[in-house]
């Protein structure tokens, strides 16, 4: 299986952000999105995750295959870490959370209410969530924010394991994770300036 984008254009708040984006990601491959702040990385990732439609172009291989980790951690603060992972495992028809807990050193925190965790601990739990989805394409937006060096290592190891198992990873990150990955710089794909200004998609704020 593969994720294939052909001549994709994306918009935020009705304003075109990127155009002419084409790439293919095969099983076992990672692709890192680069580009300055505001260049459209998040918008492209949200489109691939199915949170918004592309303006034009075709996107193949993403439906029912993507697990998305955006800026929010996707955790319920009044559930424990284990309960959160069990919840997400159930959503995706999976059961085992032990591997995910172990991969991010979360066993000692398994029974803690997620709302009482530190920012980095929450981020570890949010990333562990990906491992209980069983989904082949991990789409990650700045995944290492709040992580200390040890946790960055845990994350890199989790991604490597996912790739070895034939999975794919698409990441927007400014950090060198030591992964063998293709780089896609979105800077060269800026959409032509539009006459529309000041719009926003508040529904997603
Ligand atoms: N909710 C929104 N409504 C309207 N425009 C938005 C909204 N969110 C972001 N934008 C604009 O869309 C453009 C692309 O933003 P996007 O978040 O995709 O960039 P990014 O490359 O991920 O940036 P960063 O590196 O800062 O995270 C920017 O000009 C941004 O100001």
Architecture overview:
The protein is an alpha/beta fold. It has one domain (2-185): Rossmann fold (3-Layer(aba) Sandwich). Helices cover 26% and strands 25% of the residues. It is built from five helices and eight strands; from the N terminus they run E-E-E-H-E-E-H-H-H-E-H-E-E. The chain has helices spanning 41-48, 81-91, 98-103, 119-131, 149-164; strands at residues 2-12, 15-26, 30-34, 56-60, 66-69, 137-141, 168-172, 182-185. Strands 5-6-7-3-8 form a five-stranded parallel beta sheet, with helices on both faces. A three-stranded antiparallel beta sheet has the order 2-1-4, with helices on one face. Helix 4 runs parallel beside helix 5. The longest helix is centred in the C-terminal third of the chain and has 16 residues, at 149-164. The two termini are 33 Å apart. The model has no long low-confidence stretch (mean pLDDT 93). Bound molecules: adenosine-5'-triphosphate. Adenosine-5'-triphosphate (ATP) is lined by residues 12-13, 17, 35, 37-43, 199-201, 204-205.
Quickly describe the structure.
This protein is α/β, with parallel strands linked by helices and 205 residues long. Strands 5-6-7-3-8 form a 5-stranded parallel sheet, with helices on both faces. A 3-stranded antiparallel sheet has the order 2-1-4, with helices on one face. Helix 4 runs parallel beside helix 5.
